[in-house]
Write the structure tokens for this entry.
Amino acid sequence: METSIISNKSKIGNNVKIGNFCIIEDNVVIGDNTIIKNYVELREGTIIGKNCYIDSRVSSSGDCKIGNNVIIRYDSIIARGVTIGDDTYISPKMMSNNLNTNMNQIGGAKIGANVFIGTNCVLQHGIKIGDNTVLGSLSFVNKNVPENEIWFGNPAKFYKINEKKNCLNEIYLPQ
């Protein structure tokens, strides 16, 4: 039988669709008109805004705050303490962490609003990603990224100023 485990201590908004085989723990908040696909794990204290799309096999470690109109594609890992601003797109297989080299929790990434994060990006602990930023696919981001910039690489480096500032509706290709 296809089922999900949803804590009765979570708060689910209106018109929320939750797929099969999901785990939604205590004190999780899901805003109105949000879609949660299959095999999603939302640990205690995760807050998701309105009109979001959380794809299959996304997991949050808890105590995360995800803004409104956010799209998180499949197989992404949202570490404990990560915040994601409104109108942000996270491509498949993004991974964030909140541990330093001594395995101490020091806080997840702070991702601004209107950000595009490419496929297979890794975000190190405690970094800040500014508003209107683009991070290219396969980037390893280990330091703060100012707003309105495009970065990519391993480690990620500045490429150019983001003049379009509408990350969800543009395609960025290095020239």
Q: What stands out?
A: The chain has no helices and 24 strands. The two ends are 51 Å apart (CA to CA). The mean pLDDT is 90.
